[in-house]
Specification:
The complex is a heterodimer of chains A (484) and B (512). Chain A is built from 20 helices and two strands. With 484 residues, chain A is an all-alpha fold. A two-stranded antiparallel ribbon of chain A has the order 1-2. Chain A is globular. Chain B has a three-stranded mixed beta sheet. In chain B, a hairpin with a 4-residue loop joins strand 2 and strand 3. The chains are: A mainly alpha (484), B mainly alpha (512).
């Protein structure tokens, strides 16, 4: 009896949240057969329930930590923190999807199943203690999101998005595998801690080590949309169904940062000097291109796509700063970013109704007169994305730049704040259109309780974290300090 | 060294001052009736004004310490505290902020008809942020208020402004933001250099290396110079002033641009005294340029509001001139001139707002001879004009006189050139008055102009009263600020580490 329990403790318990998410995903596929088309939203609520149960399991597991499955799976505060961010991204993603799928007439059960599979992949990525697990999680996530991007299969743009994402994604996966195989060839192990101990005693001047690091930067740069590996972002973000775009900009991107943090600050820690130089350069480039390109966009999804590139740049600043403070700042930032970006996309989805895309910035004209609440929510999210206090976005950026200054990268922090001032222009342009131009006509919103709930959650969090960040900040710091 | 006097009263007066307007704006969210919204907003702003009474009555002007202090832990991981308090400098601006908010709400009574609720929410939110800026004693807290203020001001200009409001609003926002974010980096650098603290009083006692001071001063300067605004980063001001609704102009001229100068006093000078001295020649030059250039530009304006905007550039040049004379007279004169400018220019914008509401034109050429039709208005305008010129007996005279006195002790040439600015000021203001009020009525539309009504008179009266109170009894203001200003200079003197020659000069100047 006790041995069964021990086995349970060793095998089932640590991956219980993942098992819940995957189990719910599989059952969604089955249940889909029994639920008629008009009532597919039930599956959405069902999936959301699964996410909440998984989140509950994660809170119960917070006291339990350790290394499982021969070092391939890590249950540590770091991974748990990221899992909570994924729950938020997936939960909000489901909430903003329900009504949209109905309007687009693509309400099928697979959608929720794919979203859950992607989430479980991201959870694996955060918990990976081994290159193989890492890759497995990454592909599980990526393959699900490729399909989600092309979910509107009768829409050309959606198809284009899926193909583009798939081809370039596969290419970047290849580069990643190449980099990993080089590391394996040198160290003889795929375990992250094994590679670390190899590097600690290795001759770091070896160009092969350097080459594998570059390859990892390139491939993860693709996942988090860092410049110059960002080319896919605008088209994919524009073409994919808007809730998928929202989910992509929050979930997979954050998962990419989880892995970047673990690999570059832990496994490749001994190479910190080299990686910092490259990551700093990448950060500046990403902030510059993201913010400057966003200035001229007329489609709000494209603008938010470039804005998400820019935000990856800010997070890269924290990564370049390195150390536990740098890592904590990235962790805080991605959580805040996921919330505010989800919110902004939520308002964009609100404008989508049958027969009208509602994706041009001019479609927002006069929203401040016709739909005060929607406009006010967008105002909150946009000021937060700009980084104006008292919104959460400010706290996130503040921590990033603070850790950069602490690491001696003052120039990087100065570049960051200047580019973030540029961003004020395009975010404020939307506010201007909403509040300062006349409505073209009555704007009907595709209001739905699920969407309203998602917007309420994200808006409240954005303001609450902005005014009183202590709790989240302490949690982020506690999840990293002393871990690596 | 300065201390924070906690528990002076048995209620948190300063927190009430910050959060009552916030509460008011929340309440307004649920009110739909425009008339009701106006009354509630006015009531809240009057409560704020009323709270200034215990503030001023209990204020001890004998001590330079921070009074009415409150301190709560806020973000412990970064050692950020909710620390607030006022000294003899900030208490004056808190009072001025509450007064000008009441006046702004009163002048918007009929002028704002569109989205009244949102307008009043923005006004109250703005008031909270303004007071927050003046009472913050934690750099992080200060920055939060400093930036948060941009949101309502941006909306005020952008939504309720004139025809070119979009351009003016975004220009205002971007100029201020770029300056502010550079200061943010400096704030972070100061935090680490001073041993991980944002506490203003603690940082004051820390001595930074000279090179650090130089760069940090430059970064703070970027934020404050844009706000003042100093030449050559003043170009947002004429646009913002012209396009803003009357209430926005009053707050902009009365409070917002004072914050830059206040920032110099509160942060730049006590934190980085060596750098301040090193930067003085440059700042003096810029101030003199601003004085002359602003006056010169004011002559050329056809637009009533633009003329006042450029006169603001000129007057704020006097403020920085006095402040960076780095002696008692100059600094006290500078602070008084900030108050004066808040009163006079606030009143001038009020005057423009009153007449604009009737005629819907701001072009000076559309007026002329209106004194015969609107005697009360013309009298009000005359008093304010004279105060703005600095006629003895009005507040403007005392301010400009002490500033020039202070500047003359240290920078004779600057003082001489600056006094030309006063003459020019008299020129463009009197010419303005002549073109607007005197002579025969040139525009037939003005034949049936209605004079100021009761509400407008009530709004204008406190400002007129202040013109004469400060003009005839300047000690009312000097007395409050004296201990704090003297302490600031002493503090700078004590902290000065390099350039002994400069230190000596400063020492003798304090002796004067």
């Amino acid at each position: 009896m006790s041995s069964t329990y021990q086995q349970f403790q060793q095998i089932i318990l640590p991956i219980l949240p993942e098992l819940v998410v995957i189990g719910v995903a599989l059952s969604v596929l089955v249940l889909d057969f029994f639920i008629e088309k008009e009532r597919k939203a039930i599956l959405g609520w069902y999936s959301l329930g699964g996410i909440i149960i998984a989140a509950y399991a994660s809170t119960k597991l917070m006291s339990m930590g350790g290394i499982f499955f021969d070092g391939t799976f890590l249950l540590d505060p770091f991974s748990t923190y990221f899992k909570f961010v994924f729950y938020i991204a997936c939960g909000l993603g489901i909430l903003v999807s329900m009504n949209y799928l109905k309007i687009e007439d693509i309400h099928r059960g697979e959608y929720y199943a794919l979203m859950l599979f992607a989430t479980s992949g991201m959870m694996m990525m955060a918990s990976a203690g081994d290159l193989i697990t890492l890759y497995l999680g990454l592909e599980l996530m990526a393959l699900s999101v490729y399909i989600l991007a092309g979910f509107m299969r009768r829409d050309n743009r959606s198809n284009e998005a899926a193909i583009k994402y798939l081809v370039l994604g596969a290419f970047s996966s290849g580069i990643m595998i190449y980099g990993m195989s080089l590391l394996y060839g040198l160290s003889g192990t795929t375990s992250l801690s094994g590679i670390l101990s190899f590097l600690q005693s290795a001759d770091l001047a070896n160009p092969v080590i350097f080459l594998s690091m570059i390859m990892l930067i390139v491939s993860f740069g693709f996942k988090v949309a860092a410049v110059p590996f960002h080319m896919w972002v605008p088209d994919v973000y524009e073409g994919a169904p808007t809730p998928v775009t929202a989910f992509m900009s929050a979930g997979p991107k954050v998962a990419g940062f989880a892995v970047l943090l673990r690999i570059f600050l832990y496994t490749l820690g001994p190479l910190h000097e080299h990686s910092t130089a490259i990551l700093s350069g990448l950060a500046v480039l990403t902030m510059a291109v993201g913010n400057i390109m966003a200035l001229s966009q007329t489609n709000i999804k494209r603008m938010l796509a470039y804005s998400s590139i820019a935000h990856a740049g800010y997070a890269l600043v924290g990564l370049a700063a390195g150390g536990q403070e740098g890592a904590a700042s990235v962790m805080l930032y991605v959580c805040i970013y996921a919330l505010m970006n989800m919110g902004a996309f939520g308002v964009v989805i609100l404008l989508r109704k049958a027969g009208e895309r509602g994706e041009e910035i001019t479609d927002f004209a006069g929203l401040g007169k016709t739909n005060k609440t929607a406009a006010f929510l967008m105002l909150i999210f946009l000021f937060s994305l700009t980084g104006i206090p008292p919104m959460a976005g400010f706290v996130g950026k503040f921590y990033i730049f603070k850790s950069a200054v602490q690491a001696g990268l003052v120039w990087l922090a100065v570049a960051g704040v200047l580019f973030s001032s540029i961003s004020a222009y395009f975010y404020l342009r939307v506010i201007m259109v909403m509040y300062m131009s006349e409505p073209k006509g009555p704007i009907e919103l595709s209001f739905a309780p699920s969407l309203a709930l998602a917007l309420a959650i994200s808006a409240t969090s954005v303001i609450w974290i902005g005014v009183y960040p202590t709790d989240l900040l302490n949690y982020a710091r506690a999840s990293i300090i002393g871990i690596f | 060294m300065l201390e924070l006097n906690l528990h002076q009263l048995d209620y948190p007066l300063l927190s009430l001052l910050i959060f009552i307007p916030v509460l008011g704006s929340f309440l307004l969210l649920f009110i739909r009736n425009a008339a009701m919204v106006r009354r509630i907003a006015l009531a809240f702003s009057l409560v704020e004004l009323g709270l200034c009474l215990p503030l001023l009555l209990n204020f001890n002007s004998a001590t330079p310490n921070m009074q009415f202090g409150e301190s709560l832990s806020w973000i412990a991981a970064w050692n950020i505290n909710y620390r607030i308090g006022v000294d003899g400098i900030s208490v004056l601006f808190v009072a001025l902020s509450t007064l000008l908010t009441v006046i702004s709400i009163m002048v918007s009574w009929t002028a704002i008809q569109d989205r009244v609720r949102e307008f009043m929410i923005a006004m109250l939110f703005l008031e909270a942020a303004m007071i927050g800026v003046f009472v913050s004693l934690d750099l992080f807290l200060f920055y939060i208020f400093w930036e948060a203020m941009l949101i309502p001001m941006y909306l005020l200009i952008g939504i309720w402004g004139g025809p070119n409001r979009l351009y003016a609003a975004i220009k205002f926002f971007l100029y201020t933001l770029v300056g502010s974010v550079l200061m943010l980096i400096a704030i972070i650098a100061v935090y680490f250099a001073a041993g991980r603290t944002f506490d203003v009083l603690e940082i004051m006692n820390h001595t930074f290396s000279t090179s650090f001071q130089f760069w940090a001063f430059a970064a703070f300067f970027a934020a404050f110079a844009v706000k003042v605004p100093m030449f050559p980063v003043h170009t947002w001001l004429p646009d913002a002033h012209v396009e803003a609704p009357t209430a926005g102009s009053i707050i902009l001229a009365g409070i917002l641009i004072k914050m830059g100068a206040y920032g110099f006093l509160r942060f730049s000078l006590p934190f980085f005294p060596d750098a301040a001295v090193a930067w003085t020649p440059a700042i003096m030059t810029l101030s003199v340029i601003a004085i002359i250039y602003g006056a010169y530009m004011a002559f050329a304006q056809k637009d009533f509001k633009k003329l006042i905007a450029y006169s603001s550039v000129s007057h704020m040049g006097f403020v920085t001139l006095g402040m960076f004379a780095l002696n008692l007279q100059g600094m006290e004169g500078g602070i008084l001139q900030m108050l004066n400018h808040g009163v006079s220019t606030g009143a001038l914008f009020l005057a423009v707002g009153v007449i604009y509401e009737r005629t819907h034109t701001r072009l000076i050429a559309d007026y002329g001879g209106i004194a015969a039709k609107v005697p009360v208005y013309a009298t009000f305008l005359l008093i304010i004009t004279l105060s703005s010129i600095g006629l003895p007996g009005t507040n403007g005279f005392i301010g400009e006189f002490t500033i020039l006195l202070g500047a003359f002790l240290h920078y004779k040439l600057a003082a001489v050139i600056a006094s030309l600015g006063i003459i020019l000021g008299a020129g463009y203001m009197l010419w303005l008055y002549q073109r607007v009020a005197l002579g025969k009525i040139t525009n037939p539309h003005n034949e049936h102009l209605a004079d100021m009504n009761m509400r407008e008179v009530v709004a204008a009266l406190p400002l007129v009263a202040l013109v004469f109170i400060i003009g005839l009894y300047p000690n009312a203001a000097f007395g409050v600020m004296h201990a704090s200003v003297a302490n600031l200079l002493q503090h700078m003197h004590a902290k000065m580490q390099s350039a002994p020659a400069v230190t000596q000069t400063l020492g003798t100047l304090i002796g004067n």
